[in-house]
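Kindly inspect both lines:
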Amino acid sequence: MRVTFVQPAGFNFVPGQADFTVLANRMAPIGILQLAAWLEKHGHTAHVHDCLGPFAPRGIAANAEAVLATEPDLIGFSAATSNFMDAVDMAAYIRRKRPQARIVFGNVHVTAIGAPILDLFPEIDCLCIGEGEGAILDLANGAAPREVPNLIYRDEAGGVHINPRRARILDLDELPFPAYEKLAGFPHGYHLPLFSYEKRWGATMITSRGCPYTCSFCDRTVFERLYKYNSPQYVFEHFRYLRDRFGVHHINIYDDLFTASAKRTRELCELLIAHPLGVNFNCAIRTGHTDAELLALLKRAGALMVSMGVESADPAMMERHKAGVSLEAVRETVEQIHAAGLRAKGLFIFGLPGETPETFRKTSDFILGLDLDDMNMTKFCPLYGAPLWDECVAGREGDFDEDWRLMNCMNFVYKPAAFASRAEMDALYNWHIQRFYNSKPYRRRFAHNLWGHRWSLWHLIRHLPKTIQAHRYFSANKARFEAERREFAPHPRQPRGLTPFLSPELRADAVVALADTQGGRRNKMNRKSAAPDFDEGMPIPQKTKRSESLRDTAARGG
């Protein structure tokens, strides 16, 4: 069967211009590249169309025509919340032009909402929930939808049916490497976040599925409660494959928590030290899941920068949303990272329920005192499958604008009650960004790493004409754009008020996670203890789970 996978572009707030965010970071859609490789391994023909790719056309119709040009029998859309309506518009166009093709939607948005999606959008035939490999292969092999686990489908009479979830893939090493070769312009047209690498070219990689924690803001509906990872040998060979096949010399590993298994991390580092590949990498750690010895090993293996989720510097906010991480431990970890010769990046969220101008200023002060090499401040966005979802939509502590196109962590769709307006939040956000990047410690560290930043600086210089053009366009139309933002109308077909589709286990986890924030862990917050080394293949005991995941989303593309 001929199958085409699609990553939609999502909403761009500046009409007449290409999406400018890809200048700073254009990530390969790893999820659908993995599915494409899986189908080709089993004898099917797979194509990948990335609407955010370097050669993708602009607009719904042009991208839909590019998909139609592959003559697909089945089209799989990987749709996060923010690009879901783009995917629907493309699907409607394709349905008119190629009615015989089956259209399947997957990824976290449809997994978290489920059957109502089919009731609302007749251009979609099926929803693939959870892991996609088994369901998409069954469909490609010609199985009837009623026989395919992990599938929600519409029958000929229009009735919607929910099939059981299938068992998770237990051995991730069975999966082939993602089909990077199917991306036009890879790797030269794709690039990692600016100033996060020293060697080029770069690529992204995911070496595990699931997370052993449950943070209040994280959606775990796709992989649920089972944490699995690739073996050290598999990851090593994946590194070597990217280097030898594509000339990649820096890899960003986007696991929710790369060091969850210290044993696996050590074995991989030992492989990379014994057989140097000349490849650098970045990864995510968690306070309490690392030590000075492991950080030194990561450095010797080629790690350049490690990221750690902190979210807030207000103790009550941390207890509510990320219990078990203390500010003292965060400071110690940053010191250990620097002592190992690594760069330290902090990950924070602005606007969670309970946030106030005072808690945010406290977080800003804390960030400046950490002497970080970089930081990422995300604008909080409620996710349908997260424990916080019901609290956010209830409206007791804040105002939520449930506009899917804006739910990309770049807009304040949720406004905590302590803020007078979203404009106030934007002003505080911009104040902090300027404060951090203009600070003497950051500038000192940036200057120290100036030679290492050469390729990022060259990337900016190459795109300087586009940057100037975009700046002039925005300046000339600034009043119109600001008016459009204030009067922005949602997509006419977007529903509101849908109920998340959660398994009983995830519902129980959400109840426990939120109950813990009522004070059950408050007295334990500053207590130091060694975190367990999470082994793969079995659910983590419920009371020890706290999620490290933030990135959407959309960020991993599959």
